[in-house]
Design goal:
about 450 residues; alpha+beta; Beta-Lactamase; Heat Shock Protein 90; 3 domains; five-stranded antiparallel β-sheet; five-stranded mixed β-sheet; elongated
């Protein structure tokens, strides 16, 4: 609409100028010199009016462009008492200025918001122009990590600590890389990463510096606490049945000594019990050594073992302890000649963990029962199943029970199932779990 009125104004002035020119020519042709002189004055005024009309509008536009050049969008153009077309220009300019001010305000808000976030993070961030070394922005964490005051150019770091300057600014770290920095006569461990980007003709580098010294110390301390807790828990799991079996044997020997005639001592039972204690003690020592370096184990002490013999040893070891809990423990084996190639000591540790978990889960049932079975699947793979008729495991935590240190027990370490899974992985096997809340749980060890 503004340009339409502008075009009409120009056309009208050109039309008046053409009419005045025609009138002047006609008057001089008729020798009407006085009328011709007035026509010439009219022509001069019309030309001046056209020039003034055009120049005023160009001045308005040029003034707006000047404001844009110097990024001055605070000006308010007064459109009152102006011609219709100029008033349209002013209203348009005011609208543009208002929109730009809103955009700038939003950008400033976003910048302050981002700046506040970067100030709050404990990771050092710095951006600088590579050619001049001028620092565009850095947060306090970056300065605190290096123990430097605020600086405007990275040359300050070069003069203050050349080694740190060389490590941080003169090397590329496309991926987070661990490094050691010497700061105030101390060595700290950090993660370094940087990236180069270009804006226009200038090249910039963004440097990210993460001090991981405190994190490593805290993690190491927590790891030691958990390790001690885990070792205590696992050792107690093995010592408890050994202690229970030893007390049973000691009681039998004491009764025989008091009254040999009425309390005959079964040498075979005694020998079997002592053999179980001996084997489990050796297994406990092996477990302690293996757990200490479990992440470094690349080979196992594999041997062909009769499943029947392993079940018999476990039964001798576990049943005396389970009598007090009134839990029925049954070992079922369809093929008594079944053999399996395993590390006996580690696999016994796995089965003890699973049996104790099953006993605890079924202890509150009216007729608690735990069954340990072994056999072959349809595809020929060997399996050992530990099943109970206990409370089962809720679906919400079914996927989390193998996570290290995850436990729902008040006194549990949360490592038993995780460790069992690792031992099965070392054997090239896996653990599968089936559980129905309130009906029981079945833990299946499948061997390759």
């Amino acid at each position: 609409m503004t340009f339409k009125s502008y075009h009409i104004g120009i056309l009208l002035r050109i039309l008046i100028l053409v009419i005045l020119l025609g009138t002047a020519v006609f008057c001089f042709f008729k020798t009407w010199y006085l009328a011709g002189s007035f026509s010439l004055l009219g022509i001069i005024f019309a030309i001046y009016n056209l020039f003034r009309f055009l120049s005023r509008r160009f001045e308005v536009i040029d003034d707006f462009f000047e404001s844009v050049k110097y990024r001055d969008f605070s000006r308010q153009y007064l459109a009152e008492n102006k011609t219709k077309d100029i008033r349209g220009f002013y209203e348009g300019f005011n609208t543009v200025n208002e929109v730009v001010r809103e955009i700038n305000s939003e950008k400033e808000t976003q910048y302050l918001y981002l700046q506040k976030i970067l100030e709050l993070v404990d990771i050092g961030i710095l951006a600088y122009e590579m050619e001049s070394g001028k620092v565009l922005w850095s947060n306090e964490s970056f300065q605190n990590t290096l123990a430097f005051p605020s600086f405007k150019n990275i040359s300050f770091v070069s003069s203050r600590n050349p080694q740190v300057f060389e490590l941080i600014f003169n090397k590329l770290y496309p991926k987070p890389t661990s490094a050691e920095l010497k700061v105030q006569k101390e060595t700290i461990k950090v993660l370094l990463s940087n990236s180069i980007f270009q804006i226009g003709e200038k090249t910039f580098k963004l440097v990210v510096l993460h001090n991981i010294e405190d994190t490593l110390n805290k993690t190491e301390s927590e790891a030691w606490k958990k390790l001690l807790s885990v070792m205590t828990h696992e050792i107690m799991n093995s010592i408890a049945p050994i202690s229970s079996l030893a007390n049973t044997l000691k009681f039998q020997v004491a009764m025989h000594q008091e009254n040999p005639a009425e309390n005959l001592l079964d040498i075979e039972d005694l020998d079997a019990g002592l053999s179980s204690i001996e084997k489990r003690s050796e297994g406990l020592l092996k477990f302690a050594k293996t757990y200490r370096s479990l992440n470094k184990v690349t080979s196992l002490n594999l041997e062909k073992v009769r499943v029947k013999e392993m079940f018999r040893d476990l039964e001798n070891l576990m049943k005396p302890q389970l009598k007090d809990n009134n839990v029925a423990l049954d070992f079922l084996l369809a093929d008594e000649a079944l053999e399996i190639e395993i590390d006996t000591y580690l696999m016994e540790q796995v089965l003890i963990n699973l049996i104790l978990n099953a006993v605890e889960a079924s202890a509150e049932k009216e007729n608690p029962k735990v069954q340990v079975t072994a056999g072959k699947k349809m595809d020929g793979r060997l399996f050992i199943r530990v099943a109970d008729n206990g409370t089962g495991i809720s679906e919400e935590i079914l996927d989390e029970i193998f996570i290290p240190f995850f436990t729902t027990k008040k006194e549990g370490s949360g490592i038993g199932l995780s460790l069992s899974k690792q031992i099965m992985t070392l054997h090239g096997g896996k653990i599968q779990i089936e559980s129905k809340h309130g009906l029981g749980t079945s833990m299946l060890l499948v061997f390759s």
